[in-house]
Write a structure and sequence with these properties.
alpha/beta, single chain, binds NADP nicotinamide-adenine-dinucleotide phosphate, 11 strands, Rossmann fold, 279 residues, seven-stranded parallel β-sheet, two-stranded parallel ribbon, globular
């Protein structure tokens, strides 16, 4: 039995669906199972990572664990119970910002994910890390702006990313879960092509049949605005990452293909799959 944490958000949900389609036994953890909306046949168990007393029923008969964690979540209470419950393999959706072997990670996002990776290694259980740089679903943050006009305003028009489709992440997770050949490995997942934010918005415009454009907003203005409702260090890390990628093509690798057997889906495909989100 596979237990998926974060099963009702983008990556976890897609993975649950992929596993269920493949006929694998999968269970989802949710604080509100009645709102989970997962496919028939998927067992949804109520549990809250911040309340360890709720986790034992979810772990019953679980042999593999997929962790898609909200940023900053303390996963030790779950890991403490996982080994005793019979879990053998932990797969963690981590961040491409993690620097292996560094005494100090470059930012708070890398630090958090590196800490969780260390905690997983410390359990002594088999592990696999899937490190994401830039999920294509980040573009969903443009949907509100595009409902009101044809301009996306944001920082760093020239920031480049090889955006990875959430279905590729899900299929990669399904491929490694419970597979001994992938234990003890950290894989970096990228999409098939580096695109700047300007180019991503143009791709989206062509898919929607609209003349969309990206308009750059100065870094400082975005920092101040986002820091009003998000952790300022987290916002700083995101913007520093974007600044560092501006004008430089993002790395592209074939790890998705190696894990799933097919090339990573291009951003054009992602746009076609998400038309309804922008209409
Ligand atoms: N976005 C990026 O740029 C990026 C890049 C690299 C890696 N990632 C990874 O992807 C993760 C985010 O994934 P996401 O956007 O799919 O999810 P998310 O929106 O960060 O988290 C929501 C999910 O977490 C569950 N959850 C939240 N609090 C919980 C709690 N106390 N107990 C149990 N479950 C809880 C929710 O389930 P219920 O509401 O059903 O309880 C829901 O399924 C990041 O944290 C990071 O590790 C993201």
């Amino acid at each position: 039995m596979i237990l998926v944490i974060g099963a009702t958000a983008q990556f976890g949900r897609q993975t649950v669906e992929t596993l269920a389609d493949a006929g694998r036994q999968v269970r989802a953890l949710s604080r509100t199972p009645e709102r989970a909306g997962l496919p028939d046949g998927v067992e949804v168990v109520r549990g809250d990572l911040t309340d360890p007393s709720t986790l034992a029923p979810a772990l019953h008969h679980v042999t593999e664990l997929l962790l898609v964690l909200p940023y900053g979540m303390d996963v030790r209470p779950l890991l403490d119970q996982a080994r005793g419950a019979g879990v053998r393999h932990v797969v963690f959706l981590s961040s491409g910002a993690v620097v292996d072997g560094a005494d100090e990670q470059p930012d708070v996002i890398a630090s958090y994910h590196a800490r969780v990776e260390r905690e997983i290694r410390a359990t002594g259980l088999a592990w696999t890390f899937l490190r994401l740089f830039f999920p294509a679903v980040n573009s969903l943050s443009w949907a509100m702006q595009l409902k009101g006009g044809d301009v996306v305003r944001g920082p760093y028009a020239a920031a480049a990313a090889s955006a990875v489709h959430e279905r590729d992440v899900a299929e990669a997770a399904a491929a490694v879960l419970g597979s001994p050949e992938h234990t003890g490995r950290a894989y970096e997942l990228t999409g098939p092509q580096s695109l700047t934010q300007t180019e991503q918005v143009e791709v989206l415009g062509r898919a929607l049949g609209r003349d969309l454009r990206f308009e750059e907003v100065p870094d400082q203005a975005v920092r101040e605005q986002l820091s009003q409702f998000m952790d300022a260090d987290f916002v700083g890390a995101l913007l520093d990452l974007m600044a560092a990628t501006a004008g430089k093509p993002a790395a592209v690798n074939d790890t998705v293909e190696q894990l799933t057997g097919h090339p990573a889906r291009p951003y054009t495909q992602w746009a076609d799959d998400h038309l309804a989100d922008f209409r």
